[in-house]
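Subject: Sanity check before I submit

Could someone independently write out the structure tokens for this chain? I want to compare against mine line by line before I put it in a report. The sequence has 293 residues.
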Amino acid sequence: MPELPEVEALVQDLRGRLVGRAISRVDLTAFSALKTFDPPLHALHGTLVDDVTRHGKFLDIDASGVHVVIHLARAGWIRWRDEVPALPARPNPKNPLAARVVIDDPDLDVQPGLDITEAGTKKGLAIYVVRDPQQVEGVARLGPDPLSDDFTIEVLRQILEAEGRKQVKGVMRMQSIIAGIGNAYSDEILHAARMSPFKPANSLDETDLQTLYDAIRTTLGDAVARASGLAASELKGEKKSNLAVHGRTGQACPVCGDIVREVSFADSSLQYCATCQTGGKPLADRRMSKLLK
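---
Independent answer below. Compare away.
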């Protein structure tokens, strides 16, 4: 699932490609992906792209005051095309294309555009066409952005104290508490902080708090810096090649050399290093926040 660093890199890439250019049309091929009806999709036709921004994991294309807000979910992605077919895209259950934004550029003999795609059979990609991004419920309830100046160590302290005995990994993944961090980067942040994913949120002392805060800012900031300037087609590979523990079950921890371990849940899993994070004790691989005795 694209998280804050990848979405931020997509924003930078698309901003350079789209700002100042007109949207010729939008072809919707997965009708379930469009979650709004007012303004209608055709309200985008003939608009000029003013900016591309991000709200947590949500991508926001501002076109003459009409916003296309996109949540890529687990398997969504955006692909730039230097040339799109002249004929409108049509629904095809075998094609991952969900929507296509066609750009009108009078300086080109062809029409470029971007394809919004979603792989797999479990569909979660969402497209909203709104006058104000705050009309999207998921955007309106977002917590603070962990890379913003407003996200101070005191803000993090208040968040953790308010969440009580909840596991720190779960707290970081909840978008209404902290925006933009998902399963992968929560694993990476906790590994960098040398902290158990099952540690209760309100149990951190001052040293732990500072360590976690620094790990959040550094891990995400470094990922954004690495991804900056990359085309959308390069982002997935860049992310995967720089992960220390997430998705690396059974491989060696790059810090200590211990084997990366996994805890599996019904629809997700987490990865961690026991030596770095839990005092050498493997976590129980079940839905219980207890260490194996």
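---
OP: Matches mine. For the report I'm noting this point. The chain is about 30% helix and 20% strand.
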